[in-house]
Amino acid sequence: MVGTLDQVFVLLKHWVVGHMPGVLQPLVGVLLSVVCIIAVFPALFAVITVLERKGLGRMQNRLGPNRTGPFGILQPVADGIKALTKEDIVPVGADQVVHYLAPLVLVVAVFMGYSVLPMGRNMVFVDMDAGLLFFFAIGASTELSVFMAGWSSRNKYSLLGAMRAVAQMISYEVPLLLSSVGVVMITGSLSLTKIVDAQNQYTWGLPHWYIFTPWGIASFVMFAIAATAETNRSPFDLPEGESELVAGYFTEYSGFKFALFFLGEYLGMISISGLGTTLFLGGWSAPFSFLQFIPSWIWFFSKVMLSICVMIWLRGTLPRLRQDQLMNFAWKFVIPFTLLNLVVVAVWHFMGEGWARWIVCSAIVVVAYVAMGRAGMRRKKIAPRSYRYAE
Questions:
Q1: 362 is in which domain, residue-wise?
Q2: Which of 238, 231, 245 is nearest to 158 (CA)?
């Protein structure tokens, strides 16, 4: 019974495909997987929008959505209808073809990233040996879509927002990749399925997740920072800074095309959370050995939702950074620290089993973090703020 519930979606797919003619079975199998991805994750996006509005409302001591449906749960439906019925306005001087394609490129690229994420035991659309490499390669095309949107709008604010977005995404894509290299070094594979299998082991009932190692927690923190910046979430939401850029690279977008950008941003947040779950949190594996009876796909989506809740919490807590702070933080702290952490990964691997490697690797990580942090503070010469008032 437990195995059936864990594999219910796999068995259902095989049952449907088995009732098709032999020639059509491969095509039907692909279509079923694509339909599931297109149906599940936009639905999850709708749930997250309500969760975020209610969560931020609670943090800021105000009401969240409470008018559309019971407890505001139909708010995503109302937003969708509004987006579909609003007028689509395109500037006269815009490049209409590129302006139209930009949001489509963004959404398609994000959806393709889901194809290599193992969402449960035997639940991966394409189990390729270089799944991690494919995820990052296809994710890089989102930067192209952002620049397409800003350039094609023929708007200074849009172009400035696109330039800032591309600079930010390129800067933080480097530590995002470097923080994942340690996992590849330890696992010895670029396959996301094999990375999960390597962590699906237990000692005294506790899992062998990479986050429970000195290099793993350091990589995870750097990955989380870079992922937040990659998805333009607070406090790294400079490309969409309403107080400075109106709305950034999609200033000239309205109606359903604006909704596609909104959808792409949240789907990207879910996707990068799924990757972080796969690399550092054991993917679909249970947090304790005695909880393995719970279906694997429940664990995967629970970890993803927990990561998203942390992102929402950060949005309601931290103020937006300045552009110079954003870039300095990436190139002067995050990237050097991830490079140093690769050395820690090598030390961890070659020292072998035992407590000695825990002590040595933990000491290197802590000393490096404190030293680099103090050096950055001294270089900035941070002092108490002084306020001046007009007379």
A1: 93-376
A2: 245
